[in-house]
Specification:
Length: 798
């Protein structure tokens, strides 16, 4: 045996090779089997298609009528010959006549089939149309097409055998007729029941049905609340009652179900967000209690989602005025249903900010804030205010502000001012303004750092300490301060983006007062980089003349809020804003209830009291003189606020007491018509207005005037009471507001002279004093007016 024998010897294949070839064979077999199944199924489908095509062709083919031929004379001769050839020799005459008549009746057997001539010569006229109708060709009846339902295949030795069964096709006409018949029966039954019942019986029937529905709702709700995990499926039953079809009680039942479901969800929803399970979590085996909890959470989330979709659809139907097919609810009732649905959505927005689909609820509510229906708009705005006030972390506030910003931009700033006023409720007090100088976070040491800097025992202790710190961080329930500041910073950036867009692109919009008010509130949180540009924009708005008096006051207030915060380091003297306020103070409305007084008093507080170090004495004196002049012609509530502001100025700038002296100091004459407070020489005048205000008909005005004439002392005989001295000017104005001022005449007899006839919000005039005023107005005599002003109607204060 040499080398040739070695070449002829076959090499045994390895196990891997055998395994590889067997796998290939199996794959090829599987492919061949699948190909055979596909080809057989393809052939079967092709045959079925041909069969259906043939049936449709036959059904659509119109049959041609048979050709009609007239009877030829030759045929008549043959018939006569046949009758003559009959053997009549061996028959009686009666039999012969009977046979002839029978032959005549059965002549269709002997005649040509193609002949369509009538057998009987005599026919009635009424039978002719019936004969024509019967001779018309008839169409073939269509065979019903049957669909095939493919079932699971059966595996045999030969392979997979596909299984199918015929599905009977119900004609569409019958399907359509069935519900129509039911509807018609219902419609027919209602008119029959209507006239037969009196109105009283109909009312009793409705009350009975409504009570049954109420009991059903109550039983389902109480069962769910008693054991939510076991009765979670009853939520579906309760939600199904939202589709109530009984026209008598449909609207009431749907409203009750909406509110009941809302309260149920508020009670059974957990205090955490439910996330969907991953595939790996679904595949793992868990305990029975864990599986029950998973099923409860899954059912709760799905039913909550369907409930929100039903509420949204109710609102959409009202907006689109879309009539449902069942017609259980009329179009007039859609508004009431939609209002209840909106209230439920708003309650869920406020009550469940941590649960699933909260962002979807925000997207539903924000467009309704700008709804033309005032009730709907107020409900949604109030819900958003509550949400922003109670949101301590800032997650819900950020989502809300993002959606509001998108809506304002998409509608080209054509929204209600109330939408932007809700942003004033944001709880933002601190933001991350200096990101670069932020202190670094406490990070855990790496293994390499521990090895180089710590000994073995220290590393062991450090490891235990870090483990404990991690556990404490995980166990901590409250949100970290860093996360809160980060969310607040992002929220405030979006708010300022809304405000700056409106200042830049919509300066004549009705949103401008809301924007300026918002800037005034959050101005101390604005970045220093925007200060110069923002002040320039605000002053440009003031001098443009397009703003109302209140809007210009908001501009001034915003500017000084900016400068009172971080703006202190800029060392800017906004003289132009002081001059504008000084110039426009006397334009404050004198005859009616005035809300602008609150903004004026806020401006004075920010401009003079809080910036006392940057304000000169001449400026403070000029404003004090101008406010005293203003107090003469405004209503008592505004006058009290103005005099309280003068008292604050006198305490802030003690040298202003020179205005209580008649002697002139320095050169020059007081120029009240000059618009610049620095150069109007206020030190050369006196507060003579206080003498007139000391005789004012309002007791609090008299008290303040007498207090200021004595130099506004904090103690002694000229000091104010504790109630008045502790109140700010704005608070005093609101306390003595005369918006609801009414005249209350005495019940019987003249009023006592020892009592002052004034209460907060209600004014009463002495009848004798009223008579003197009328006489003074009629005579227009200066002497009469002087006599009136000099005669007090109440005892003078000591």
């Amino acid at each position: 045996m040499g080398p040739a024998s070695k070449k002829n010897r076959k090499k045994k294949p390895s196990f891997r090779k055998l395994l590889k070839t067997s796998n290939l064979k199996l794959e090829n077999k599987l492919k061949n089997r699948q190909f055979k199944q596909q080809s057989s199924a393809k052939k079967q489908r092709k045959e079925q298609r041909k069969l259906r095509q043939a049936i449709t062709d036959v059904s659509h083919q119109t049959l041609k009528p048979l050709e009609r031929y007239k009877k030829k004379p030759e045929d008549e001769e043959e018939e006569e010959e046949f009758l003559e050839s009959l053997p009549t020799d061996m028959m009686d005459e009666d039999d012969l006549e009977q046979i002839k008549s029978m032959a005549q009746k059965a002549s269709f057997l002997t005649r040509d089939i193609s002949s369509c001539a009538p057998v009987h010569a005599k026919k009635r006229k009424s039978e002719q149309p019936v004969e024509k109708y019967e001779k018309m060709p008839r169409k073939m009846q269509q065979k019903e097409e049957k669909e095939l339902i493919h079932l699971l295949p059966i595996k045999d030795k030969s392979g997979l055998i596909p299984q199918s069964m015929e599905k009977p096709v119900v004609p569409e006409a019958e399907e359509e007729e069935e519900p129509k018949d039911q509807d018609e029966l219902e419609i027919e039954e209602e008119p029959e029941s209507g006239p037969s019942l009196t109105p009283q019986e109909q009312l009793e029937l409705r009350t009975q049905r409504l009570m049954e529905k109420k009991l059903r709702i109550a039983s389902l709700s109480s069962a769910i609340l008693a054991d939510p995990h076991a009765n979670i499926k009853k939520l579906k039953e309760l939600r199904a009652m939202l589709m109530e079809t009984d026209p008598c009680v449909a609207v009431t039942v749907r409203k009750l179900v909406m509110v009941s479901l809302m309260e149920v969800f508020k009670d059974i929803v957990p205090a955490y967000r439910i996330r969907p399970l991953t595939e790996a979590e679904k595949a793992t085996k868990v305990k029975k209690e864990t599986q029950q909890l998973r099923e409860f959470e899954e059912g709760l989330v799905s039913q909550y989602k369907f409930y929100l979709e039903d509420l949204e659809q109710t609102v959409k139907d009202w907006k689109q005025k879309k009539q449902k097919r069942s017609k259980a609810v009329s179009l007039q009732s859609y508004k009431g249903l939609a209002e209840v649905a909106i209230r439920c959505i708003c309650d869920l927005l406020v009550a469940l900010p941590h649960f699933n689909f909260h962002n979807n609820i925000i997207v539903m509510v924000v467009p309704l804030m700008n709804d033309p229906v005032r009730t709907v708009s107020e409900i949604c705005c109030e819900a958003v205010r509550k949400l922003l006030k109670q949101d301590k972390v800032g997650q819900a506030s950020l989502a809300m502000v993002k959606v509001i910003s998108g809506m304002v931009k998409s509608r080209n700033y054509n929204v209600k001012p109330e939408v932007l006023k809700t942003l004033l409720c944001l709880r933002i007090k601190e933001v991350d303004m200096k990101k670069d100088t932020e202190a670094p976070k406490n990070k855990f040491m790496s293994f390499k750092e521990k090895k180089t800097s710590l000994s073995r025992m220290q590393r062991k202790w450090k490891k235990a300490e870090e483990k404990l710190q991690k556990e404490l961080l995980e166990a901590e329930a409250s949100e970290g301060k860093e996360k809160k500041i980060k969310l607040h910073t992002e929220t405030l950036n979006i708010v300022f983006l809304i405000y700056f867009r409106i200042l830049k692109k919509a300066q004549k919009s009705i949103l401008l007062p809301s924007v300026l008010e918002g800037l005034a509130k959050f101005a101390h949180l604005i970045n220093l980089e925007f200060f110069d540009d923002l002040l320039a924009v605000l002053y440009g708005l003031i001098i443009s003349g397009d703003l109302t008096y209140r809007e210009s006051l908001h501009c001034i207030l915003t500017s000084f809020h900016i400068l009172s915060g971080q703006g202190d380091v800029l060392n800017i003297d906004p003289l132009k804003f002081y001059s504008h306020l000084y110039q426009t103070l006397l334009t404050l409305h004198a005859g009616g209830a005035n809300d602008d007084t609150t903004i004026v008093l806020q401006c004075l507080d920010v401009m003079l009291t809080k910036r006392r170090k940057q304000v000169t004495l001449q400026r403070a004196q000029a404003f004090m003189k101008r406010l005293s002049t203003l107090g003469l012609h405004v209503l008592p509530d505004s006058c009290v606020g103005v005099l309280a502001a003068n008292r604050t100025l006198m305490h802030t700038f003690p040298k202003c007491d020179i205005l209580l002296d008649n002697e002139m100091q320095g050169s020059g004459v007081y120029l009240p018509e000059l618009d610049v407070p620095e150069y109007c020489n206020p030190q050369n005048t006196a507060l003579w207005e206080l003498h007139l205000l000391k005789r004012h008909y309002h007791p609090v005005v008299r008290k303040f005037a007498a207090h200021l004439m004595k130099g506004a002392p904090s103690e002694g005989s000229g000091a104010l009471s504790m109630e008045l001295s502790r109140r700010t000017p704005v608070q005093l104005f609101e306390d003595y507001s005369v918006k609801d001022m009414t005249f209350n005449p005495p019940v019987a007899g003249p009023p006592s002279k020892k009592k002052e006839h004034f209460t907060i919000g209600h004014a009463y005039l002495d009848p004798d004093l009223k008579t003197q005023i009328d006489a003074a107005l009629q005579t227009e005599s200066e002497q009469t007016v002087l006599d009136f002003t000099s005669q007090p109607h109440t005892p003078q204060e000591t």
